[in-house]
Design a protein that fits this description.
With 359 residues, the protein is α/β, with parallel strands linked by helices. It has eleven helices and 17 strands. It folds into two domains: 268 residues, Alpha-Beta Complex (Spore Coat Polysaccharide Biosynthesis Protein SpsA, Chain A), CATH 3.90.550.10; 84 residues, no CATH class. Helix content is 31%, strand content 24%. Helix 3 packs across helix 8 and helix 8 runs antiparallel to helix 9. The protein is globular and about 60 Å long.
């Protein structure tokens, strides 16, 4: 049974504006190292699964930029969704692509993201191998859960149940939505909850069966999408995809299914969801700042200062505390570090003002 990787890379990364733009969102940025985040994702998994079976699912606007940025990935493996939908239709499309290529034979499918920080690639691959092996042996939908390191309110949680007969794999009791601080603290203290990483592992037929059972409005489209891909009927495929609902794989399938299992991660992980995440993975100076580019700081503490304008431009700060400053050639963004999640609101405001030139 062949194994495939599906990397979801259609996000816009609006919380990393002004560095992240429509045609160069965060997955195409070098935020956590000197490599683009999507390059890191591919490099981590390619020792297990070859490039010819790594699929990138993205948007139409990002398809060509990703093809250009990833010469090692066959261009036909960078697949644009016909319309913007959520992760359940995205993964139904990916499942259909694999089924069409495998001529109806079952295959293993690892679903990864393009924009996570993972601190130990060897441990990551060991956990992925464990999840794929379990999925190949049992009728199971498997996810990797991240043991929490703080009472995070921005992530969903998974209630871990009893262990299975396979070491390192447990039953899932239920998924929990993003909690308030008190509830998150209870989760962490209990030792029975992990963060939902958004990484999934299953056989294509297991996903198809689960979707047809609990999300038929998406699952019933998989066979038709598979036929359309096999016959290259792009027009009909697009029409079918446009009719699919906007629903996430978590809510649409994982929370409604009874054969869900979790592998608690053994590797360091971060969602890299907004600018404040950089202080958890970048080196800090003597006063706990993240500094990138030509920057001079005076009496500045706990801040994130990014100069992406170039070496001919110097960014300076005096007396800042817990602030994010990001400078590009055409825009500057300043916000309190604890409001980093709200940078997305700037993008929304600029869009209402028709400022697409800086989006």
């Amino acid at each position: 049974m062949n194994s495939y990787v599906v990397i979801m890379a259609g996000g816009s990364g609006e919380r990393f504006w002004p560095l992240s733009r429509m045609r160069k969102p965060k997955q195409l940025l070098a935020l956590t190292s000197s490599s683009m985040m999507i390059e890191e994702a591919i490099d981590r998994i390619s020792p297990l699964i070859p490039h010819e079976r790594i699929l990138i699912i993205t948007s139409e606007v990002l398809q060509q930029p990703l093809i250009d940025a990833l010469p090692g990935i066959p261009s036909e493996n960078v697949i644009a969704e016909p319309a913007k939908r959520n992760t359940a239709p995205c993964l139904a499309l990916a499942c259909s692509v694999i089924r069409a290529r495998e001529a109806g034979n079952d295959a293993l499918m690892a679903v990864l993201t393009a924009d996570h920080f993972i601190g130990n690639a060897d441990a990551f691959r060991a956990d992925v191998s464990r999840a794929l092996t379990f999925a190949s042996t049992y009728d199971a939908l498997v996810t990797i859960g991240i043991p929490p390191t703080r009472p995070e309110t921005g992530y969903g949680y998974i209630h871990v149940g009893e262990p299975t007969v396979v070491p390192g794999v447990s039953h899932v009791v239920e998924f929990k939505e993003k909690p308030d601080v008190a509830t998150a603290l209870d989760y962490v203290r209990s030792g029975r909850y992990v963060w939902n990483s958004g990484m999934f592992f299953w056989r294509t037929e297991a996903l198809r069966a689960a979707m047809m059972s609990v999300l038929p409005e998406v699952g019933n489209a998989i066979d038709g999408l598979t036929d359309d891909l096999a016959t290259q009927n792009a027009q009909h495929m697009s029409a079918v995809f446009h009719a699919l609902p906007d629903i996430s794989i978590d809510y649409g399938v994982m929370e409604r299914s009874h054969n869900v299992h979790v592998v608690p991660a053994t590797f360091p992980w971060d969602d890299v969801g907004s600018w404040d995440a950089l202080e958890r993975m970048r080196p800090l100076d003597a006063t706990q700042n993240v500094v990138d580019g030509v920057v001079t700081v005076v009496d500045t503490e706990g801040s994130i200062i990014v100069n992406a304008h170039g070496s001919a431009h110097t960014v300076t700060t005096v007396g800042l505390r817990d602030t994010v400053v990001v400078v590009t050639p055409d825009a500057t963004m300043v916000c309190p570090k604890d409001r980093a999640q709200d940078v997305k609101r700037i993008v929304t405001e600029l869009r209402t003002k028709d400022r697409h030139d800086i989006l």
